[in-house]
Amino acid sequence: MSTSSSTQALIEMRDVVKIYSTAAGEFDALKGVNLQVGAGEFVGIVGKSGAGKSTLLNMITGVDHLTSGEVIVNSNGSPLSIHTMSEDSIALWRGKTLGVVFQSFQLLPMLTLVENITLPMDLCGAYNAKKSRERALDLLRLVEIEEHAHKLPAQISGGQQQRVAIARALANDPPVLVADEPTGSLDSVTADHIFDVFEHLVSDQGKTIVMVTHDQSLAPRFTRTLQIVDGEIVSPELIEAQTNDDSAKSFRFWRKAPGEKKGMK
Predict the structure, then answer these.
(1) What was the pLDDT predicted at 260?
(2) What CA–CA distance (Å, rounded) separates 241 from 236?
(3) Is 142 within a domain?
């Protein structure tokens, strides 16, 4: 199924298939996924555990190999088929083009918050040491946690760590952020604050964000929401129609069930 946006495509997935070989046999994690994400979109991909959400992100970031198909990212004005690149080239491209936010934060525990943010800048060589430190502090200010800049990750809360993780993802000013269940391990109030940060990055800085989540309640906050079911992108309308059909069947079964009495509660 093809799922596209009316805006210019920044990310394109073309017939992407990912098959894992396991002791129990082959497992189709992605089944011919076609997807387009336009510049400036905040796309939410909703699905249950095991539906293929993280695998889909891994195909976009290039951290895992696809079985067949193609992923094209139109960065810097030219299309790039990322799975045709060498591992070293993909790593360098990813550091400059994509910011990745994980559910478990993935901050280095021995580095201070500001050092966690300067590290990707130092690895890519985009800024000198003074400029990278200034930028790191600016990013901590952006996510409203600058006062903790010189603390270690263990000295701040989970919600604060996720803010740092977002700041680190922005270190090299990438046009695209991908987020894998970024609010999954947070309480509802903290999760709402983190989501606010993502929304501001789209509206104020023009970032493009692809987020995967199992939380259906977040759907209204995305600019576009897609469902992934058993490795396939399914339109929300089809999911809703199926749900309504299942509800109708259940109602008809209840109405016809033998032994039922009117007025039962």
Answers:
(1) 52
(2) 9
(3) yes
- Domain-embedded: residue 250: no
- Domain residues for the domain of 235 are 2-245
Kindly tell me the burial class for residue 240, based on how many C-beta atoms sit within 10 Å of its own C-beta (0-12, 13-18, 19 or more): exposed
Helix segments in the chain, DSSP class H: 53-61, 87-97, 113-124, 129-142, 158-169, 188-205, 236-256
| Count of domains forming the chain | 1
229-255 confidence digits (pLDDT tens): 999 998 655 555 554 554 455 445 455
Name beta bridge partners: 42: 209
pTM of the model: 0.83
| Residue matched to tokens 């692809």 | 210
d(CA 253, CA 265): 16
Write the CATH number for 179. Answer: 3.40.50.300
State the Cα–Cα distance between residues 228 and 45, nearest whole angstrom. Answer: 7
134-158 residue pLDDT tens = 999 999 999 999 999 999 999 999 9
